[in-house]
Every structure is written in structure tokens, then in C-alpha cells.
Amino acid sequence: MLIDGLPADQIPLTDRGLQYGDGLFETIAIQGGRPCLWQRHMSRLQNGERKLGFPFSDKERLWHEALKLCSGREEGVLKIILTRGSGGRGYRPPDPCQPRRILSTHPWPDYPRSWYEQGIVLRRCDTRFSRQSRLAGIKHLNRLDQVLARAEWSDPAVVEGLMLDEMNHVISGTQSNVFLLKGDQLITPELSQSGIAGVVRELVLEFAEQYSLHPRVIELELEELQQADALFITNSILGLCPVSKFEDRQYDLNVIPSELVKFVNNSYLADV
Fold first, then answer.
1. Which residues contact 95 (CB under 8 A, 6 or more apart)?
2. pTM for this model (two decimals)
3. Residues 6+ apart with CB under 8 A from 249
4. Residue pLDDT, tens place only, 227-272
5. Are 227 and 187 spatial neighbours (Cβ–Cβ below 8 Å)?
6. ω before 96 within 30° of 0 (cis)?
7. Helix (H) / strand (E) containing 105
8. How far apart are the C-alpha atoms of 78 and 120, rounded to whole Å?
9. For residue 60, how many other CB atoms are within 10 A of its CB?
10. 3-class DSSP state for residue 130?
11. Residue 4: strand, helix, or coil
């Protein structure tokens, strides 16, 4: 672990990330000793810095610190946390602030091959995603909506939970973005008010038309998932994973173009 570029494993109790969740994070796959999809992650991180009013971090310095931690790891997970740094009691941000950066590495999760070959079970969560346009899309540290949603089940047969917002619009999984296929339409929820705009979601939308799919980003109703031909989820560690069942609906995994699956699950471990 590196804290502000130095080996360490402690931060002050006055850190605003700890006190208020005042910060951002990125979770990045490591392959061959290098962080994957780096520029996409940094673009989202900088968008988060802009929204929270942080000074822009030195991305070149972050890159060299990331390489230092990732070196020698054939695979793994890199987590970057930026907080607003230390401050006194009260919500008012210090001005100027001195952001703190925390980089850590973790083992690569041992996801079962069956998830990709047979699909996963998706359930609906009772906990709703909060609506806040100023925080939508970015990976800020306040993730209690997802924490509460993920606490709703312990059945290992259920891999992911689907979250709606307070207007009953589909937003995402607790840790993933959601896509549905209906004919040649590739549909994913609009995220201007809630949720996280994933880097693999961005990848799928950018390249969908190369696989004869027409991407649409819309306010998605729950009924449309029941009427879909296929569902899949994405994130930067999982890649693209098909959904075999949601509530009482079974989906045909063969509807998802195999070329798209192969492209995404190769590309998200690279630097497209």
C-alpha cells in the first residue's frame, strides 16, 4: 500500500474520507503487471474530481505509483482512493484542500467459470439508489445504498442484485452495470441522476455497433427486463457476464453475440 507515494497503512482520524466519505475511488484490473483500461479510469476519476471540487491529481504520478505496486503481479486488483485530505469538524470543505491518495493491491477474485458459461442469477433489491445528479456517474466514497442492498441476501446461488431508484427506474446492479438485448437493440439505463458509469459499460456502448447492435441509453422500466431477449452485467473486474435468470424469467445466453462477449472479455484486461 502507498499513501501519498510512501509505503504506509494508516491515515489520520481527521481525514475527510473517513469522517464524511468525502472522496473518490477506482477499482482497476491488473494483468501482466500493469493496470488495465487506465485512461478510461482516469477520465472518470477526473470527472469525479471536477464534480467534488478537488484539484486535479497528477495522473502521471498516479501512473508511476500504480506501476510500482502492480510490478511483478501477473493478475490482481488495484484500488485507488482519493480523499479531500484532513480537515476540522464540520461539513465545510477546507480551502485550499490537500487531497490524500491511497493505492493498494488485492488478489484477483476466483470467479467460477460457470458464471460465464451458464450465466448468473440476478435478484431485485428493496434498497433504492438515491437520486443526486451532482454525484451520478462517479465513484464517490458514499456507497451506503449499495452496502444496504448487498446485505439483503446471503444465498450464494444469487450473484448480483438489481437496484432501482426512487422513481422505479432500473439503475444497475449493486456492483455492476446492466444491459438488455431486445432484437438488435442494446439497452442500458440512463445514469444522469443515479448510479455509476462503468468503464466496461463505456467500452460496450462504444463498440456495440461493430457487432450489429444499436446502443440505446434510456430511462429503463422493470417490465422491459422481463420482456428482454437477454441480459448481461459488466464491471471492470468481472468483465461481461450473462444473466440466466431474473425473478421468474429465464434468458437464452446464446442471444448475446459471442463475438461481443469475446471482445469485451479480452479488451477489459487490456487498454482499449
1. none
2. 0.93
3. 225, 226
4. 999 999 999 999 999 999 999 999 999 999 999 999 998 888 887 5
5. no
6. yes
7. strand 100-106
8. 25
9. 8
10. coil
11. coil
